[in-house]
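User: Can you write out an input/output pair for a complex, sequences first and structure second?

Assistant: Here is one pair. Inputs:
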Amino acid sequence: MAFYAPPIARLLEELERLPGIGPKSAQRLAYHILRGDTEAAARLADAIVEVKRAIRFCERCFNFAESELCEMCADPTRDATTMCVVEEPRDVVAVERTGEFRGTYHVLQGAISPIDGIGPEQLRVRELIDRLGRESVSEVILATDPDIEGETTALYIARLVKPLGIRVTRIASGLPVGGDLEYADEVTLGRALEARREM
Amino acid sequence: MAFYAPPIARLLEELERLPGIGPKSAQRLAYHILRGDTEAAARLADAIVEVKRAIRFCERCFNFAESELCEMCADPTRDATTMCVVEEPRDVVAVERTGEFRGTYHVLQGAISPIDGIGPEQLRVRELIDRLGRESVSEVILATDPDIEGETTALYIARLVKPLGIRVTRIASGLPVGGDLEYADEVTLGRALEARREM
């Protein structure tokens, strides 16, 4: 038996395809859209279509971009000798937010995960090596996630890049600033101890 | 400084307007849309626009409908002598799921909540009384939420309807008090319907 009119059922189905949206969340979102004004719904629909129309991948670093190059790659004031390698475009945003980095990026578009069938060939690793051959990069900062996939990916890339005579660094693992020692997991705390610095 | 390209920023902004979607969820959804294929994004956008185009309120019971009347009101096999009064269209779906009810509905489109400035005038109460004058209803089942607003609304409507010589019942508490009708499982809600009491 159909409990929902087909247009509602269809919207629920599409909403449930989104990550982290189950039946209850989909229902809440659908009812919000149904109760809201038509202009609000049109704006949302248009933003979805427009983002797919306007956004592509940067031809150089594979970040999201509005033209051939992303904002960072098109900016001549950025330091092209330092390259930060990340997994996803959202990681570029995270690094940019620190205000600590003025170099360029390379977005792998994932991390090595044999269990998910993702090897270096599925990532933008070949493109990274190509760039290092073409550009004058003196340091590659590996800013992949500090999890198993990210560490594996960092190790893999380090092994490829070091023979090119380029300095390879890895972002530090440690306790989050403002965090509590007693709530840190033992792996993180172990890393923080290992990476202790002279004061 | 702009961390996101404008089309992405715009999509994030629209997504964050949705209930229960904070900045992190919006980012996850936006990235899913950006990484997915254009057809999937178009389907979602179209479902949003279409639901607003195709769905209106039933002229009789104020449930969501695809034409003047909703599916239930248009169904001549439903028992028009028993009317179930609910707060929202989603509550109609919840009651339908029990399979215990074959009467008609009346959707109040909310509940009395003085704190939110919602009185009987903001709800479809006048339309309910009109219907009861026009239709041959012998029992009104009050299935508003078992919370303060829902109980207040049920009491208010009971006081209006009983003088009309119509039997007024309230779904049984069996539902957790302070809970939400839409989250009840169908067995519990079915029992509650079955065990409705005279008011």
